[in-house]
Design brief:
single chain, alpha+beta, Cytochrome p450, globular, binds protoporphyrin IX containing FE, binds 2-acetamido-2-deoxy-beta-D-glucopyranose
Length: 519
Amino acid sequence: MGLASEALNYLSQISTQSIFVLAGLIPTVLLVLVVILNVLKQLLFKDPTAPPLVFHWFPIIGSTITYGIDPYEFFFKNRRKYGDTFTFVLLGKKVTVCLGPKGSDFVLNGKLKDVSAEDVYGHLCTPVFGTDVVYDCPNSKLMEQKKFVKFGLTSEALRSYVELIGRETQEFANGVLQGKEGTVNITEAMAELTIYTASASLQGKEVRSRFDSTFAQLFHDLDAGFSPINFMLPWAPLPHNRKRDAAQQKMASVYLDIIKSRRESGKEKDSEDMIWNLMNCTYKNGTPVPDKEVSHMMIALLMAGQHSSSATSAWILLRLSTRPDIVEELLEEQKRVLGEDLPPLTNENLSLLLLNAKVVKETLRIHVPIHSIMRNVKSPMPMEGTPYTIPTSSWVLASPGASSRMEQYFPDPLKWEPHRWDDDKGDKDAEDDEKVDFGYGLVSKGANSSYIPFGAGRHRCIGEQFAYIQLGTIIATWVRNFKLSSVGEFPKTDYSSLFSRPLNPARVRLERREKVEKS
Ligand code: HEM
Ligand SMILES: *[C@@H]1O[C@H](CO)[C@@H](O)[C@H](O)[C@H]1NC(C)=O
Ligand SMILES: *[C@@H]1O[C@H](CO)[C@@H](O)[C@H](O)[C@H]1NC(C)=O
Ligand SMILES: *[C@@H]1O[C@H](CO)[C@@H](O)[C@H](O)[C@H]1NC(C)=O
Ligand SMILES: *[C@@H]1O[C@H](CO)[C@@H](O)[C@H](O)[C@H]1NC(C)=O
């Protein structure tokens, strides 16, 4: 009796335990099954018309993590294995990477019926910019909006911007150090300076004065809309999205108020900012650009310019801090070209400072702010010179930044050396290059170019000139004021946001020069 009950007891214990063990195993077993099926699928089903698929263990996750940590390492590793064209899985989406100048051409000069930028960026950008602009309207309307902005950057406008940016930068330089020398966190410092310079010039004085108070927080909240998680969940009722939506409304209404008060006061245009310009633009169908759209375009310009320029200026100062010889050479160039007394900079002067511009150019070669440009494929795209046709279930990806890191185009590609552009026949190359007009003036197709940090095709940047002026003025003013030296190891890149910026700690040591040009 005793023995039997003990045995029963023992058996029941075993089975309860094993049920638990089994239950615990089920997810593991399922996962193993999913992984095995995923791997088998990759090994057994090979479509000869599809580019090679980057091997991955888990469906959906695919290569998201390795790509996300260091896209260039991911691109170059797979390029060695598969060549310039291959597909990987990014959060469940098949993305075909098209490397090199040919790949960039394929993606960026794709036909309107074949590729769509708004399908990829719309969900992310529309809540930040607002409706009816950029990716929340037909492409033909975007082309007109780009024309308004590009044509608004007249030579008078650019001339006045250099003066305004120079003044802001000098003021910032005056206050950035407590004493004669010190260290600054360069990413934060440049983010602040970029906002001041862009708002003082392009955005107008009302916006600039608000950045001393309310705008900074609004900008910060709006910017949270660009967090990478929003690629998946742009509409999720998360706190950062609620703040984003509130900030968009508030900021749009600030711009509307500025426009309204300018119109009501009956004032004449009294500055070269973009608000005045857009207030006076009319679409081809005869409709004046509605104030709401002016306001949303101004937000789009603020956001588009801020990250790319601030990350680039941070990289420039970090690079300069490792090359005191170039810093001295830049100052010598200014003294030689403009005079020992270093007069206040003008746009005409800036165009004579060749090394100054090469510093921008070389920094944008290695530190392109946008490492991946993506499009949704809308109709199957045969790829010339390959057996592949990219299906509509995929996105395509171009990486101009990968081309400009290729040894075949730029020997010792990761070496930062502005003088590598010394015998660059920049203008001649540009003349040879085919030009197209998508509705916002002639732009280079860049169809065979290994250096297109501003993109190519219908979505090409319209902020290039402005960025060069902004960055050029910042460099010139900075080297007049400071000697730079490096602190610790050169920072790695933070690829986790949409714009690649230096990973903290990223610090630069400054020593104020004895004689500072006052402007
Ligand atoms: C260093 C600075 C900058 C870099 C490297 C840069 C780079 C780029 C690139 C690569 C594109 C193409 C994106 C695509 O094809 O999807 C682009 C588009 C654009 N950028 Fe810039 N940009 C810079 C500064 C600016 C500034 C300062 C502004 C505004 C004043 C601006 C406004 C725009 C606009 C409106 C577009 C067009 C978007 C489209 O048509 O889809 N950018 N930029
Ligand atoms: C508005 O544009 C018209 C031509 O399109 C021009 O004649 C006029 O001077 C502009 N006004 C302002 C304030 O810019
Ligand atoms: C710098 O610009 C100013 C104003 O345009 C001009 O008067 C001066 O001649 C320029 N300097 C040089 C060296 O071109
Ligand atoms: C593309 O550029 C390379 C050099 O970078 C040149 O050898 C080649 O001829 C060019 N091809 C075309 C079609 O322009
Ligand atoms: C710079 O950043 C470090 C952390 O990376 C922080 O401890 C320090 O206080 C910052 N310095 C300034 C001047 O903001």
